[in-house]
Design the sequence.
């Protein structure tokens, strides 16, 4: 599997968890039938991205979100929170991951007609 495919698979898994209402993800989550652990795969894709110069998201913010999660796990916590801040703009891990995975979805609290009408203003 190519580096970008591995990154996309990790981001898709995390996005599905957050979109499904989970407020955190565990480094021990199995992300596929082969038993690949989320924490190990996040570490692996971060190394691949750095080694291959891969940036994901505007200003590489998706990789920053993954790095934030890896840091939480590296500090000894099993779960990484969706509400951890990624940058000085107060974007959370959840915001970044969901915006990348579902770019055309309305923000929380905004129905689709509001999102659609605001795009024409």
Sequence:
């Amino acid at each position: 599997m190519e580096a970008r495919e591995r990154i996309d698979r990790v981001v898709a898994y995390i996005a599905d968890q957050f979109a499904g209402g989970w407020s955190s993800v565990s480094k021990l989550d199995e992300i596929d039938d082969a038993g690949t652990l989320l924490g190990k795969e996040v570490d692996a894709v971060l190394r691949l991205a750095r080694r291959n110069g891969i940036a994901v998201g505007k200003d590489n913010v998706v990789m920053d979100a993954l790095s934030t999660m890896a840091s939480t796990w590296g500090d000894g916590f099993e779960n990484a929170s969706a509400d951890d801040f990624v940058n000085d703009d107060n974007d959370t891990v959840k915001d970044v991951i969901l915006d990348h995975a579902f770019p055309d979805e309305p923000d929380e609290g905004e129905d689709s007609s509001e999102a659609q009408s605001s795009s024409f203003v």
Notes: Residues 112-121 have pLDDT under 50 and may be disordered. Residues 62 and 76 are 22 Å apart (CA to CA).
